[in-house]
Amino acid sequence: MTGTDTVERVRADGPRAFARWDAAVFDAVARGPATMLAQNLNGDDDAARAFDSYMRLVRQGVGAGLLTRAAPGAAGWSSFLERLLLEVAPAQLADLPAERRVPALVDLWNLGEGLLREPPWVDRYVCSCVRVAPKLNALAEFLTRVLAPVLTPAPPAAWTGPLRVAVLDLREVHDDFMPGKLRLAAPAVLCVEDRRRPGLHVGVHLRRGQRSEPLGVLAGLGAYEEAGRLPGVQFDDGRVRVGTKAVEVPTLRRCHGYTVARAGFVAACAVDSQRLWVIESE
Known about the structure:
Elements: H1 3-17, H2 23-41, H3 47-63, H4 80-92, H5 98-116, H6 120-129, H7 139-151, E1 164-169, E2 179-186, E3 189-194, E4 201-205, E5 213-217, E6 233-236, E7 239-242, E8 245-248, E9 255-261, E10 265-270, E11 275-280
Antiparallel strand pairs: 1-11, 2-3, 3-4, 4-5, 6-7, 7-8, 9-10, 10-11
Helix pairs in contact: 1-2, 1-3, 2-3, 2-4, 3-5, 4-5
């Protein structure tokens, strides 16, 4: 069976199998990523089997509403699964040994769909980490590497070293965002709630070395409760004391709210500012 035959069969099966079938999305995928894959496979002995497996996943993705486009939009791909299926697989599948192609597609689907079953911020965070397309035959290792820093509880900080301060301007994420309530969503992910719109949240990745960075506007940022004792925090006019250590923060005059991460971070916002202060200890 040729690639064209496979596409036509899947196109006919889609509306019968899925009530929410989107023919326009399927046709765009067939013209773009699927055509690219067929050309890359170039009719080798395994081409028909690999292409058929790929199109079955495309059908499942379109029918389940997980594939919404054939190319990235202005904000990129809508999910990591979408990027894997429509960019990574067409470009890399033909380079794998024939016996690894179908298993690689199965892994791609299971890992990508698994991310979508997590809180929504997890998939968004993974997407933000993908500067260069990951290797199709090493997706599990890639996910372990990028998720471990934010999902693995860090050893508690001693809070005895010097305090350092990083300032993040959240206007760069959302023009009129005004930081309000702060809470942890994961061991190294901070949820910052907009003071005027409680449903609007910005995620922040807490990173050592004054390298904390916003993850963007994220939905589904739950609450993560830290275990163990945390140091006392006191805010004076332009000065912050954490445990027995203090640091001058002249731009933070009146604290509106703060939270503490046992990994060695205090995140705070001010009464009259769109900035976020991240105070870091060893």
